[in-house]
Amino acid sequence: MREKPVDALTLEDAAEELAALAGEIAHHDNLYYQNDAPEIDDAAYDALRQRNLAIEARFPELQRADTPSQTVGAGVSEKFGKITHSVPMLSLDNAFSDEDVADFARRVRRFLKLSDDAPLAITAEPKIDGLSLSLRYEKGKLVSAATRGDGSVGEDVTANARVVDDIPHALTGDAPDIFEVRGEVYMSHADFAALNAGRTEAGLPLFANPRNAAAGSLRQLDPAVTRARPLRFFAYAWGEASAVPGQTQSEVVEAIGRFGFPVNDLMRRFDTIEGLIGHYHHIELIRAELGYDIDGVVYKVDSLALQKRLGFVSRFPRWAIAHKFAAEKAMTVLRAIEIQVGRTGALTPVAKLDPVTVGGVVVSNATLHNEDYIKGIGQGGAILREGRDIRVGDTVIVQRAGDVIPQVLDIVAERRPADAEPFAFPTTCPACGSHAVREDGEVVTRCTGGLICPAQAVERLRHFVSRNALDIEGLGDKQVEFFFEQTDPSLRIASPADIFTLEKRQASSLTRLENFDGFGARSVKNLFDAINARRRPSFSRFLYALGIRHVGETNARRLARHYLRFDDLRAAAEAAEPPVERKDRGNEEWQALNAVDGIGAIVAGAVVEFFHEAHNREAVDALLREVRPEEEIPPVADTASPVSGRTIVFTGALERMSRHEAKAMAEEFGAKSVDSVSRKTDLVVAGPGAGSKLKKAQELGIEVIDEDAWFKLIGR
Questions:
Q1: Is the pLDDT of residue 555 over 70?
Q2: 519 within domain boundaries
Q3: What mean pLDDT comes out for the span 362-383?
Q4: Is 478 tagged catalytic?
Q5: pTM beyond cutoff 0.70
Q6: What residues have CB less than 8 Å from 278, skipping those under 6 apart?
């Protein structure tokens, strides 16, 4: 529905979307204001709010009590005390184009009944991307500090504000008896880089960006942590004041500077719209040189008397607006395309760039997404960049929006070097040298060397020892990482076979596992016992544990029950030759593998790719020297049972059996267990919380029973 124009929405559509937008915007507000960890960039967030406003304008009768158009910020965190703002801290309406700014000036003139040639002074200043803060001074002394919160009530961060160098404990000059200074806490680019460098050395998580770092640093329970962080402050407004030190916005901000606060030296006063917009584009041009993050320019009617007449609407003042910057872009040269291998074997191309500053951040890497994106092909074969491909040596346009990973948008065709050649996507994995394949219908190319690829090793080992695979007690996620990271040969586990040689290597080593934290003599013995207990796994569990793409538990059982012996499946897969052309059917072994009940070309292809890769065969050989899969014994179906031959779906939260047990039980009694409901389904067993599958079964008139009825039906 989000793709449908507002003018095309029905009343029902609009009500449904307003409800969704209210929840989605509240979610992002909470992440931004309370957790200092936004998921989306400002442009995407602004688009959600603009959509909400547009729908409310067309359907005013649908405005909700929790509408985002009437809210500011987010609720106060329970870990802080609360301070009620004597003057609310409101948000600003947004402009996204030069014409929007001109419309703002026209609205102001209409409201004030000013002619087009009547003087109207408006200030322009950078919009700092930080955390809003209100500082209350009484008799010139700082008495409290509060975040914006929900606009009415903020978080009490007084103790933390006192340790920020830019915030004076006492005002200088002739300050009013009561005066609330408002502004933005931020972190410079240089300080942010130094902070993250220190955290890297200390092995601590890094901050995503200066705004999150500043907000998280101020909202600390321990002021000592805040003191250690390089926070700064720009003042630009005020709240309650026993006397206002000026008649205009610019005069009061100048006075705030005299009181001892840093104010932004890019603030200017203009008498024309052309002057405002010209200053906006000047700031846009130099923003990367400022040394701190900004996300737009704020315009305010300069006269305080006119501000008072204009007043407020909804959560915004009528006399101010924020002119937001578009997604940040820059040009640079692409020097290389490197391939990174992910934890699941996906090969992702990354552009290595001449470093360029984009919105205050130095960018030297950018994503190229996949092979098709480099070629100029989008989803569904759509043409990207008018079909222009991306080549090493190209001058490229890079975009960075908020916290989103920078991406290469386009190339500057006239700057392409004469010798630039199309990029050839690799057919082997750069991490391990195994064959890399791209399946039909997918855009991702993947490494097939799952058992030996170092980029995938930890994930593959975790899968190998997981509960439904070999189920080795004592080898959880932390233990797998511990053994993989060891450099001592007697301790390292880099492949499945290493698990089963660990005890032997430890027996002849001076480096004893018992000497490491978390491993005592008993726990080590228990671990070795658990490993040895899995040296004769079932064929289906062993096959599933290998982590072959598309071979989950169900397909592993199907293959095991067809071939019965692992060696027979392996021999068939190694001998299989898939079709080269559409009219080709492949050889006999391929056809037989493809014809296994429930196994089609995609699964068969993945199995063949796995066993055709020499590195995988070597890893399996090493594993088979330690482990011997049992021959699979197919369950003897009870043809006399009341469910024999029936197709059954289990759904919901089963309470008396696991989903795995339920499927095995159905097969034991001669039934076929599937995962989706269709007209071919004979019976649905529904536990608590059953949703769409239950609903579909009811719509199709399929018999539905609960767990108790199931056990009664099969006589258990």
A1: yes
A2: yes
A3: 86
A4: no
A5: no
A6: none
